[in-house]
Design a protein that fits this description.
The chain is 55% helix and 4% strand. It contains five helices and two strands.
Length: 159
């Protein structure tokens, strides 16, 4: 295996495996609908807000990476839902599906040997695909950790 293949393998592991921390699927698995909008005292965001934030941020980074005309939402209101509770179960399920779909798209970018991980993005010369993939992985890991901590406080971990 050459260095390029090895790097791609490690990036894919970072994006989709559980390695040193819980993965997205473990963190969202089996969370009762009545707990999705709960915020214990001292906790800033509900599970719904964390998941929807992760989805929005990941989507934004994906689109920024592959679309030079993409316009990011306004910070912070475009990245965090106002309501701590999902509108309904369908919104919860839709957010989780969209997160997984966008994560798969990022994995496909990494897996494509034609993707130059180190080349500057045409519309952002100071950024590369590698930087954006690492940003997604780091951001997701951080908020998955917050979701696990929230679930522990709610008495809903492990799933």
């Amino acid at each position: 295996m050459n260095n390029d293949q090895s790097l791609r393998k490690h990036l894919l592991f970072l994006l989709k495996e559980e390695g040193a921390h819980a993965g997205f699927d473990s963190a969202v698995k089996g969370l009762d609908a009545n707990l999705r909008g709960k915020k214990p005292e001292g906790v800033e965001h509900s599970a719904w807000q964390l998941i929807e934030h992760m989805r929005l941020a990941q989507w934004d980074i994906l689109e920024f990476t592959r679309n030079s005309n993409h316009e990011s939402p306004t910070w912070p209101e475009g990245y965090w839902p106002k309501s701590p509770e999902p509108p309904d179960d369908k919104a919860w399920d839709k957010s989780i599906r969209a997160f997984r779909t966008d994560l798969k798209a990022l994995e496909e970018i990494v897996s494509d040997p034609k993707t130059d991980l180190f080349a500057p993005l045409p519309h952002a010369k100071d950024k590369t695909v590698l930087r954006e993939i690492l940003l997604v992985a780091d951001h997701n890991a951080y908020h998955i950790g917050a979701l696990v901590a929230l679930r522990r406080l709610l008495g809903a971990w492990p799933a």
